[in-house]
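Hi everyone, sorry if this is the wrong subforum. Our group has a chain we'd like a structural model of before ordering constructs, and none of us has done structure prediction before. Sequence below.
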Amino acid sequence: MIEFPKINLHIHSNYSDGRNNIKQIVEKSLKLGLNYIAITDHFTNSWKAWVSKLNNNESITDYLEEITECQKYLARSNKLLTLLKGIEIDLASTKQYIKTYIKADKFDLILFEYLQSYESIAFVKNIIHYWRKQLSDKDKLPVLGLAHFDPSIFMLGNLDTLMKFLKDYDICFEFNSSYSSFYSPRYERFFEKLREYEIPVAIGCDSHNLLTLNNIEEPLSMISYYKLENNFKILISKLKLISSCSQQLGSKAPNKGSKSIR
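Answer:
Right subforum, don't worry. Here is the predicted structure as tokens:
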């Protein structure tokens, strides 16, 4: 098997339904030898709005600033861990709620949760078009991905329509270790299409505690099983660009000489 970086791009902190704060997650990830992680707390005003504290500009700013401080520490200390500012958007949220509070250029990664119909594809397109109009530099859009996507919903329809959407909007598929049934061999045709269309693939554990941060072996093995190594490399190239930017952030920050995250 090809040696890949250790990646977990789906982690929840106590800003939503995770048990640990961001600093604890970062410290444990360092001990585990992870290379790339993303804090992706829930964002929603649907029936499950209770799950997240990210429901106003102040809380979202606090969330992003806390991640930024950890990013600065990692870069300043030359740690081999890149931390991404992420968020998981519930597509049952209202369009206006998303447009009001989510400024795409403030994030490194945005996951879309519950893409379950062709109508939800149109919903995501509308949101992305809105974000693009808000940006002066179209390349500032973050990495976009589908959180724990269930292929069964589209298996009886036109998979090419789904794939064209993912390709045109540069959206990656997540191998999520908490939803292993979603990469079952019965969906092999779906994964063949991912390979054909060169859709990036990522790994996320949907971690809500420190014990699951390193549950990446099964997703890695399934990436190999479906011969999606090149798709994974596409995602890794995007992460390397983010890592480079994070290093620049650290070089601009004053060196406080701290041995741990403050």
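For your construct planning: The chain has one domain: 9-252. The longest strand covers residues 82-90.
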